[in-house]
Amino acid sequence: KEITSLQFRTNLMRGLLEEYSTLRCPSKGGRPALDTPLRLTARHFPSEVPQTTSQGSKTRRHCKVCLSSTRKSKQRRLTKYMCVPCNTSLCAVPCFEEYHTLKHY
Questions:
Q1: Which residues contact 67 (CB under 8 A, 6 or more apart)?
Q2: Bigger pLDDT: 1 or 12?
Q3: Contact indicator for 39, 99 with CB cutoff of 8 Å
Q4: Are 18 and 62 in contact (CB under 8 A)?
């Protein structure tokens, strides 16, 4: 039985697709965005910034909330406190509480 050129090409494409095609699920790409940041869901407690040998007992870091762009007066305040799970330096009062309770601090 003779087949048309169109039938031949269709059969050829089906055969190639069956042989070499793999099913792929469409990827959304990247990590899914969390509605609530992790820093707002868990319990966090302030601890002192670990000492470094070069600075001795005066180890301090800049507070993340004080440097935030939403603050009226951006100040580079040094603090000796940090949140270990978040790996973020924060002033004990009020920045620590603001960072862990407000979505946009």
A1: 74, 75, 76
A2: 12
A3: yes
A4: no
Neighbour-count burial for 11-24, b at 16+ CB within 10 Å, e otherwise: eeeeeeeeeeeeee
Say if residues 65 and 71 touch (Cβ distance below 8 Å): yes
Residue 28, pLDDT above cutoff 70: no
Q: What ranges do the domains of the chain cover? A: 39-105
Q: Note whether 89 and 96 are within 8 A (CB).
A: no
Query: Residue-wise over 58-82: b if at least 16 C-beta within 10 A, else e?
Result: eeeeebbbbeeeeeeeeeeeebbbb
Let me know: does 99 contact 82? Beta carbons within 8 Å. Answer: no
CB atoms within 10 A of CB 90: 27
pTM: 0.57
Q: What is the largest distance, in Å, between two alpha-carbon atoms of the chain?
A: 92
- Give the single-character DSSP code of 48: E
